[in-house]
Design brief:
Elements: H1 2-8, H2 13-25, H3 47-55, E1 59-62, E2 65-69, E3 75-79, H4 87-94, E4 100-104, H5 108-116, E5 125-129, H6 141-150, E6 156-160, H7 166-175, E7 181-183, H8 195-208, E8 214-216, H9 225-234, E9 240-243, H10 251-260, E10 266-270, E11 291-295, H11 303-312, E12 318-323, H12 329-338, E13 344-346, E14 367-369, H13 377-386, E15 392-394, H14 403-412, E16 418-420, H15 432-438, E17 444-446, H16 456-464, E18 468-469
Parallel strand pairs: 1-4, 4-5, 5-6, 6-7, 7-8, 8-9, 9-10, 10-11, 11-12, 12-13, 13-14, 14-15, 15-16, 16-17, 17-18
Antiparallel strand pairs: 1-2, 2-3
Helix pairs in contact: 2-3, 5-6, 6-7, 7-8, 8-9, 9-10, 11-12, 13-14
Protein name: F-box domain-containing protein
């Protein structure tokens, strides 16, 4: 009977693979990996599961120790200290479907040399983080050249925290003409006299990487209006641009650049000078921008640009104003009354707003971030009635919120799936159980006190209601 029962419950590998992929793909619509803590490390359950997870692992992160997130449901850490020199290539052999590789540390050239010799690998994404490199001038030029010769499938390249030279930009332009995504964010310092040659390097990228759809040049302080306009003019397929902290670019420069690329869908940028009404001219050609992140200059409070968003980008679905601490309730209401299609709104760190007089209706809003603000119970009552379709609400470190305000949200937001109460000092974790009972749609709660120990009865309730309540124990690494 026991043997017969075992046979009855046997599932072939392809069935388990489908189950694992279903669990991963349906956990969260907004790319938050933390919601997988309630799963055990499936690769350690059995040899069958180990074989399956090897097959469906697509991404590998290599640090001084190796982290293997099975997308990211399955997690394992392996130390490479004292391992043979070919350990990385042997590890990659284990995962035949690997298409994304993230490398960091002091041996990037050596690691790139190993993977470039593997004939079977078909990488699509390569992420290099030089932030941990001991040499401040380090750039893995030799390794990148080898990769470009032997791995022709690469479409996404990240080289962040590098000590940038114009020669590096020319190298990327020459070696990777098929790139669709390029991230060169947060470069290390350069000399003032190098700015002209660096701008020439940006122009070389613009002329060579004609298939680029996404580019991230965060904190490239040397970039000027001319380079940006040339970039947008040349990149015909560009859909997303992240140009934050490039303070040599003027408002007019952004306006002119956007006019060169009318098919742009997502823009993240910083204000670098006083508001110029000519910026409004881009409204003629850019109604299709759906994602906008605006960060102000530390010494400029330019409310005018923000207020124009409503007329310039009427089809916005994602608006991130977390870097605009000077905005008030009237500013936000002005934008929201006109941009009625917004689905995700980030107002974190809006320190002067209390949100009590927010008179607006945003029926399509699904994600709202009010972390580190002065929002209180009265404001949450108003907001929850105006945004009844909310799926995700972030209230981290909102010190004026009490249990009363949380109850307003739970009562009015009938589709709420996730709420973050971390650091809400006036809310006690013992309200979580009543929240789960009152709002069955909840799937994830981050309680105000991460070290709170829930009772066995409460944990059974959370499990029965399929709601993950994240605690400090879930942050422990195996």
């Amino acid at each position: 009977m026991v043997e017969g029962a075992a046979v009855d419950y046997y599932l072939p590998d392809d069935c388990w693979e489908t189950i694992f992929k279903f669990l991963v793909n349906n956990e969260d619509d907004y790319g938050d990996d933390n919601n997988n803590y309630h799963f055990s490390t499936l690769s350690t359950v059995s040899k069958q599961f180990l074989s399956i997870t090897n097959h469906i692992l697509f991404s590998l992160i290599v640090k001084p120790s190796v982290t293997i997130p099975d997308h990211p449901l399955f997690s394992l850490k392996v130390s490479i200290i004292g391992k043979p020199s070919d350990f990385l290539s042997r590890l990659i052999h284990r995962f035949s479907n690997l298409n994304s590789l993230h490398l960091m540390g002091n041996k990037l050239d050596e690691n790139l040399r190993q993977i470039s010799s593997l004939s079977f690998i078909s990488l699509k994404s390569l992420h290099l983080n030089c932030g941990m490199c001991r040499s401040p001038n380090y750039f893995p030029a030799d390794g990148l050249q080898l990769v470009s010769r032997n791995i022709t499938t690469l479409t996404s390249l990240t080289c962040c925290h590098v000590h940038l030279r114009s020669s590096h930009l020319f190298l990327i332009a020459e070696c990777f003409p098929l790139l669709e995504q390029l991230n060169l964010s947060y470069p290390r310092s350069w000399l003032r006299e190098q700015e002209s040659s660096l701008n020439e390097g940006v122009k070389a990228l613009s002329s060579s990487l004609l298939k680029l759809r996404k580019v991230d040049l965060t904190h490239h302080h040397y970039i000027n209006d001319q380079s940006l306009c040339y970039l947008f003019m040349k990149l015909e397929f560009l859909e997303e641009a992240i140009i934050i902290g490039c303070y040599q670019i003027t408002t007019n420069g952004f306006a002119s650049a956007i006019c060169e690329r009318p098919n742009l869908r997502s823009l993240s940028f910083s204000s670098s000078d006083d508001f110029d009404p000519e910026f409004a001219a881009i409204s003629i050609v850019c109604p299709q921008i759906m994602s906008l992140t605006f960060t102000s200059h530390p010494y400029i409070e330019d409310r005018g640009i923000v207020l124009l968003f409503a007329s310039i980008f009427p089809n916005l679905q994602l608006l991130d104003l977390s870097g605009c601490s000077y905005l008030d309730e009237d500013d936000i209401c002005h934008v929201l009354r006109n941009c009625t299609k917004i689905r995700q709104l980030n107002l974190a760190n809006a320190s002067i707003m209390k949100f009590r007089d927010m008179n607006f209706d945003v029926p399509k809003l699904e994600v709202l971030n009010l972390s580190h603000t002065k929002v209180d119970d009265e404001a949450l009552n108003v907001i929850s009635k105006s945004c009844r379709g909310l799926l995700k609400l972030l209230l981290e470190d909102c010190w004026d919120v009490t249990e009363k305000g949380v109850n307003h949200v739970v009562e009015n937001c009938t589709q709420l799936r996730e709420i973050n109460l971390m650091g809400c000092t006036k809310v006690h974790a013992n309200v979580v159980a009543s929240m789960v009972l009152s709002r069955p749609s909840l799937r994830r709660i981050i309680p105000p006190q991460p070290n709170y120990c829930f009772s066995d009865t409460e944990m059974e309730l959370f499990s029965r209601q399929r709601c993950l309540v994240q605690t400090a124990l879930m942050n422990l690494k195996l």
